Here is the input.
Amino acid sequence: MSQTTVLRRVFGVWLAALLALPVAAFGDGDALPFSKLSIAEPQRHFSPTQACVEPEEEMRRNHMEYILHQRDETMHRGIRTRQYALEECINCHATKDDSGNYIRVEDSRHFCASCHTYASVSIDCFQCHSDVPVRASALSGQHSGTDLARETLRFLASEGKSQ
Amino acid sequence: MSSDTSKQADASRRDFLTMTATAAGAAAIAPGVFLTSPAVAKPADEKVTGDKRWGILIDTQKCANGCTDCVTACQTENGWGGENDPEKHSSDEQRAQWIRKAELKDRATGHVISLPLLCQHCETPPCADVCPTGASFKRADGIVLVDKHICIGCRYCMMACPYKARSFIHEDLKDQLPWAPRGKGTVESCTLCVHRVDEGRTPACVEACTAENHNAMFFGDLYDENSEISQQLRKHGGKQIRADLGLNTGVRYRGI
Here is the structure.
């Protein structure tokens, strides 16, 4: 028997064992391997009155692209529009618990964490960035009135007019 | 031809008006203190350009020995150090140091100079030269920054910096400020309060120094001949620390 034939047989046995494995594992009538494990459904925290900066379907799939683009624009070119700023995501989507405290990102009820836990996506945005609102939103119109916020609102208003 | 002339006339009239306004403002308040901010805010959607170069002039003769107002202001503004420093396990040498007070003593005369030492925002920053990922960079307006998104924490820049201006974060942090994100495993340094500068405000250290009436720090555009900092530099001069390295620093000192 040549060496190739031996290798081929060993591989065949190994493949058969691998295919038989799931059958053996679910022999006790369990439908799925982790069906007993409960995973919390992602929570939806959307403003009933204010729409997101882009349609919901678009944001669900591509929110990271918007944030990534804004990240580089702000960091390297000093562009500080608020439309796609991570801080504004937090300002809008942050939720409070029953005692009125903001839910932190370690808690799976946090807007970002709830979905990322569900999808098993680990993000490190909040190792550096704030996971709760710190200063008022520039987009809500109820901001504290910094120069930047005013500037942004003016910019957004002019953008709206031109469209 | 005629339009050119009228433009010139317009420009000179505008200059005259500006100068008059500046003179009136200067007359009303103490020298070095202006009612208006030295910088005009750029629109939020506009990128920074090389038309400006931000710098700080520090007058060491006005900088009091033992005064740490600028350091405290920086800590409060950017959320590092202070009493609630989360970097509990790090030694003093390891902890964040965006700005620190240094005292220089002339051994021959015993004369002591006190000055704040921070990132010098070099025109040719050695930190950016050695950075393997491009995380250390100089913005178009001369502000030297670390893009912590792409910093791998190798700390070459810390070794390359002749001013010991950079520090490395060794510990997990929590409750950072939205305008000054910082995190474990990355190098950081003075950002010249870039978030404030983009709003047309002055850095926190300069603001504190002026607010406490020490008036030892001036912030402004080095390329603008009419800016306070340029006028001060033209009149009194300003030295670079380690000028022999030819880095053309944005931070200049008087009285060293």
